[in-house]
Each structure stands twice: as C-alpha cells, then as structure tokens.
C-alpha cells in the first residue's frame, strides 16, 4: 500500500458511512489520480456508492473532447459518470464565473449527506494562499481551501490537500494513466497560472520547501479562522435579541448588542452572520457599516452590499434581499378573490380565515392618511399605530390592508376593527423571505 493510498484512506475514514462518494472529475492529472485510487480501493473493500461528475463549460474547443476521454476512463474503472453541460455567465472574471457555474452544478446534484470529492492538493493550497495574500485577503481568505465544507445538501471534501503535485504525477506515471491538459493552464495572463509557472519555481529555488511551508501556514490560518468563527457564534447568541414581530422572517440582530462590542468584534460578527447571505467587501470598504451604526436615531441609513442591503430600524439591524429590494406591485384584490391563500406579486402570500360579513371588501396597500377603529381605543391614525407597534418603515408599505368600501377594517398580522373582530375573521400575511443565501 503506497503512502498516497494510506493518506487518502486516513482522510476518507470519517466519511465511510456517507450514502455516496461523487468525484469532481475534470479528466486532468489530479482528478484522474483520485479516481484511480478510489476505484482500486473499491475493488478491495466495500465503500459508499462511487460515481464521477464531469462539468463541461464549453469555453474552449479543446474541451469538447474531454467528456469522451472521461467516459472511457470511467468505463474502464467501472465507475458511473454524469456529464453536465453548464452555461457560464459573462462577467469581469471568466475564472470566477466558471467556478460559480461548476459548483452550482455540483451542489444541485448532491443528495442529502453525499460527499463531493475534489482533487486539490498541497501545491494548489500554497498557490491559493499566495494568490489571496497578494490580493490583500483577511484571515478567512488566507485560510485558503478548507479540507471540507458544506455544499448543497452534502459536503465538499478535499482528501488530497496533504499530498504534493509531484506525488500525484509520480503515481499517474507508475500506473500508466493518461489525462487531459487544459491549454488555458499555460496562459500566464491568468494570475494563478503566472504564480504557478513563474513565481513558485523561483521561490522554490531559494526555499525548496516553499509549498509545504505555505500550505502549513494556510492550516494555521484555518485554525485562527475557526477561533474567530467560534467567537462570532458567541457574540451572535448575545446579539440576536428578541424581535417584536415574530411573523417577519428576515435575518436581524439587536443593534445595541452589536454596538457594545469592539470594532474588530463587530466586523468579525457581521462577516460571520452575513457570509451565507452576501459576498462581503474588503476591509477598505466598511465605511458603510460605521455610517449605518452611528447615524442619528431617527435616520434610516442603508448599507448596500453585493447581494442585498443592511438597514437599521426599531433598534435592530435587518438584512434585505430579493423581493424586499423592489417595491411590490399594486394590489387591488376584490371580495371574490379573498379566499384561502392568495399570492401577492413580489410580496409573499396573504391568508384570510373565517367568513367576511356582507360588504364591499378589498385588499390594498397604504397610500397615506388611513385610520382604523381600534377595540377599546377609538379611531386611531394608522401611521401612529404602526409607530407604536414598532413596525420597521420598510415593512409598512407592504402590509396588506383589508377595506370595506373606504373603511379600513384590518391590518394584516397586527390589528383589526371591532366590526370584524367578533366574526372571527383573521388576516394573516406571510411576507417574502428574500434570497436565502449564496449557493456555494
């Protein structure tokens, strides 16, 4: 049993009970070695169901031959292969867009508890650390590639991170493996290729252990990032507080709980809390947070981020995304449409329970100047009522209102007039939930 095989077994041992192992198989050297190692292991022992996924980006003519190459090798090793063609969205970075498309396809195909196996190795880890260091990344970025992380309904695992590219190349040659070469890997206009082909060999001439040293540093930084995440979880527990509107399903934090922390812990907490929801700016672009935090009490500041925005209202921080970033379409539902659950365009759903008495019933949103007969309190201005109930301003224009003719009779989820209170009618609104995070 080779040293490479032993290290792979050690890395995979905690995942032996997974329902399936799926190999991210590009057809290149690294993934070909991983495929071959796992196929040999599966012939000797019972393993989780083994299969491969090849993502075809269609970005260069040479890639059209790769699916056939992958299919032949998988057939020879008796491993099922799923070939997936993806569309790469245009953008400033072709590499990043291709990576997003690739991992979105992987995530979509992973079943509950399944493992996607990536073939990234120690040299990749070292290059990633150096690349991110040159871009000014923080601890999270410098931790480089984690050995495992959640992906879709399963887990992405990189069992070869402790192995060098030279070891994989030697294994491939000794077993007569053939692999595809991506022509774009020779294009030094791409920063990672320049680092791999020009910078790393130069560093290795002076420091022969440079890849091992950089990979080791990435491991230390990974431990530091884990400690920061544990601290953020502790701060998050204290900062969640209690939202006065339990029917509002938006991520939110108690502002005073966040502001009581040091600036460094505030940033650490917000990075941790917002990481699943949005791409975060680098440290030089956090002025928006301090402006939002320090604004006057009666101000309504907004911190716009890549995938949504953070607002401050009623003593809390609120994350808005998706439908919440656009005004809802005009609403004019008449009596005949007010049955059971009704979808509101761009604004969730509304449910009317009970039977309305005879009248000219309809739903609409606020236009200003509305008032409501409140049980035991007489007629009250709706604006004042919403202030008393601490409804955030960004919610008020979305609240479905039930009218009988020109008379406001109910405000969804909050209050209603005595005229329908006795009838048992209830107007419940399920607001939009926004985008529920990044796909990978």
UniProtKB/TrEMBL annotation:
One function term, GO molecular function aspect: tRNA(Ile)-lysidine synthase activity
Catalytic activity: cytidine(34) in tRNA(Ile2) + L-lysine + ATP = lysidine(34) in tRNA(Ile2) + AMP + diphosphate + H(+)
Pfam families assigned to the protein according to its UniProt record, in alphabetical order: ATP_bind_3, TilS, TilS_C
Top EC class, one word: ligase
UniProt record, GO biological process: tRNA modification
GO cellular component: cytoplasm
InterPro entries given in the database record: Lysidine-tRNA-synth_C (IPR012796), Rossmann-like_a/b/a_fold (IPR014729), TilS/TtcA_N (IPR011063), tRNA_Ile_lys_synt (IPR012094), tRNA_Ile_lys_synt_N (IPR012795), tRNA_Ile_lys_synt_subst-bd (IPR015262)
Entry keyword annotation includes Cytoplasm: yes
SUPFAM superfamilies, per database record: Adenine nucleotide alpha hydrolases-like, MesJ substrate recognition domain-like, PheT/TilS domain
Record domain Lysidine-tRNA(Ile) synthetase C-terminal: where: 361-429
Compartments reported by the entry: Cytoplasm
Binding site for ATP: 26-31
Main location group: cytoplasm
E.C. numbers: 6.3.4.19
NCBIfam families, per database record: lysidine_TilS_C (TIGR02433), lysidine_TilS_N (TIGR02432)
Similarity comment: family membership: Belongs to the tRNA(Ile)-lysidine synthase family.
Function: Ligates lysine onto the cytidine present at position 34 of the AUA codon-specific tRNA(Ile) that contains the anticodon CAU, in an ATP-dependent manner. Cytidine is converted to lysidine, thus changing the amino acid specificity of the tRNA from methionine to isoleucine.
Domain observations: The N-terminal region contains the highly conserved SGGXDS motif, predicted to be a P-loop motif involved in ATP binding.
Protein name: tRNA(Ile)-lysidine synthase
Gene name, Swiss-Prot/TrEMBL: tilS
């Amino acid at each position: 049993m080779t040293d490479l095989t032993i290290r792979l077994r050690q890395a995979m041992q905690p995942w032996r009970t997974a329902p399936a192992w799926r190999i991210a198989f590009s057809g290149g050297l690294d993934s070909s070695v991983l495929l071959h190692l796992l196929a040999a292991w599966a012939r000797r022992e019972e393993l989780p169901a083994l299969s491969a996924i090849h993502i075809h980006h269609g970005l260069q003519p040479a890639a059209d031959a790769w699916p056939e190459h992958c299919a032949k090798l998988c057939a020879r090793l008796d491993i099922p292969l799923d070939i997936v063609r993806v569309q790469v969205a245009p953008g400033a970075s072709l590499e990043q867009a291709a990576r997003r498309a690739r991992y979105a396809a992987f995530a979509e195909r992973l079943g509950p508890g399944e493992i996607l196996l990536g073939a990234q190795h120690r040299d990749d880890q070292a290059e990633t650390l150096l690349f991110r260091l040159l871009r000014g990344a923080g601890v999270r970025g410098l931790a480089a590639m984690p050995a495992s992380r959640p992906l879709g309904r399963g887990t992405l695992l990189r069992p070869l991170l402790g192995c060098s590219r030279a070891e994989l190349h030697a294994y491939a040659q000794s077993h007569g493996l053939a692999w595809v070469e991506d022509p774009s890997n020779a294009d030094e206009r791409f920063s990672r290729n320049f680092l791999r082909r020009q910078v790393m060999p130069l560093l290795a001439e002076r420091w022969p252990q440079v890849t091992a040293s950089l990979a080791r540093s990435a491991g230390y930084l990974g431990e530091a990032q884990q400690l920061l995440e544990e601290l953020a979880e502790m701060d998050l527990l204290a900062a969640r507080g209690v939202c006065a509107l339990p029917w509002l399903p938006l991520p939110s934090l108690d502002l005073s709980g966040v502001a009581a922390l040091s600036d460094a812990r505030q940033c650490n907490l917000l990075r941790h809390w917002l990481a699943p929801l949005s791409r975060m700016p680098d440290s030089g672009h956090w002025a928006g947070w301090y402006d939002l935090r320090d604004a006057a009490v009666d101000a309504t500041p907004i911190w716009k981020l890549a995938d949504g925005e953070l607002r401050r209202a009623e003593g809390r921080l609120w994350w808005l995304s998706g439908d919440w970033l656009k005004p809802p379409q005009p609403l004019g539902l008449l009596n005949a449409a007010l049955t059971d659950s009704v979808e509101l365009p761009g604004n969730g759903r509304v449910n009317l329970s009970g039977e309305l008495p005879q009248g000219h019933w309809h739903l609409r949103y606020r236009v200003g100047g509305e008032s409501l007969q409140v049980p035991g309190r007489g007629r009250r201005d709706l604006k004042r009522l919403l202030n008393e109930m601490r409804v955030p301003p960004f919610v008020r224009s979305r609240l479905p209102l039930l009218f009988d003719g020109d008379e406001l009779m109910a405000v969804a989820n909050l209050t209603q007039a005595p005229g329908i209170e006795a009838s048992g009618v209830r107007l419940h609104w399920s607001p939009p939930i926004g985008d529920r995070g990044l796909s990978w």
